[in-house]
Amino acid sequence: MRVRRSLPWLSLIALGLAVAPVRSAADEEDDAAEVRYRVRTDAALERMTVEVCFAGAPPRSLGPGIDRAGPALLDARKGAQALTVRRGRIDTSGLSDGDCLTYRVDLDQARRASRFSNRQGVDFVGSQGAWLWRSRRRPPEHATIRFDLPDGLRVAAPWPREGDGYRLNRSAFRRPAFVAFGRFEPIRVSSHGVDAELVRLGDGWDFTAEDTTAWLRTAIEGVSTVQGRFPVSNLLIVFAPGDGSGVGFGMVRRGGGCSVGFIVGRHSSADALRESWVTWHELSHLQLPPMVQEDAWLYEGLATYYQEVLQARMGVQSPEQAWAALRDGFRRGARGRERDALAVEAENMHRTYAYQRVYWAGTAFALEADVALRQRGSSLDEALRRGARTWRGGPGVWRSERLTALLDRSFDAPVLGPLRDTYARRVAFPPTAELLERLGVGRGGRLRAAPLESVRDAIMSR
Fold first, then answer.
1. What are the boundaries of each domain within the chain?
2. How far apart (Å, rounded) are the C-alpha atoms in residues 454 and 42?
3. Within a 10 A sphere around the Cβ of 336, how many other Cβ atoms?
4. Would you say residue 104 has pLDDT above 70?
């Protein structure tokens, strides 16, 4: 049986979108000690008015989290006094301690500045960086945001609740999140240690809210088989409609909390939802903390590995199908052009398009690591379960050296660190045929008796 899995970026390119973080130039501003935001919109969600109050000294200027959102700024005022605006930045140098200002944003223009934005009638989703102005060099350490919306409108955001609003940490100003506004009815599930909220943009979905809830519960249950609980405590998921059937594309964002945007066929069946591998890939990213781009081989590889493993564990596909998908992926990864060390390829993959090699070499690492740990009486599941106690909910971006050093602490001798070093420096695609032979995985995923068949079977078991 020939099994192919397209990588998420292929669906993204087909939709005319682009994967990229929020990028902005640093300036020389200082941050305020505490900032309070109050957000209002009109009923059509065409205009947004934001009041910003500073508990301490204001910064010298405020700007958007996304540079190209600057033209969306309509005006800014302190009371009746107009404030100077230059290239989308608000001059706040004349404000005093404890002052407030108000600015207005054209939401359609802001949405167009936000990558992976989508509007369906009134409902829309985009990055907060397109409408949340802040000090850009040093964002506030403590901030809250409150939404006062017209009747019938809702906001869905991934940030921790505080009173009648949300609490924003610095990552909410430094990284994008998916934030949705509209007339949707949220679907909420609390299970396996996570409070999850899901919203669907627009009308005309063929699958029901009950189908969506079942999909979400199954996904949470499956992902939780790795660490014994869901890897994060709060999660926002946004469904934007697309063509085709099932989940066609997904993206994880971690600005102030974890959010995932999915493009889903509006006319999908419940079975098509359940059988979409993109679900498992994107949610598996949450098993790890945020990591630097040069380690994309590790975090994309681990997500690709678990997308197959978790489907087998949940009965979405058979173990034979999962092994066939992995074997086929290794073959495609090995066909990629070998230019540089894997870590270098990962850092440059959006420029060189070396996605197949980066993803599948990282998947080979995950498989080899899992097998090595299981031979020692542990597993990759167990290593992640222990490591997550350190990074869950914490700030900062990790490097693979630090990550593997943490995971190796429970072993008599380092296992993952040396393997990580070998893979990061490797130019040639890793040899996988011998390992698959020892696991008893043949062509088409056919399984046979082999020295490591017990390890093979345990990987796909719950």
1. 12-286, 291-459
2. 61
3. 19
4. yes
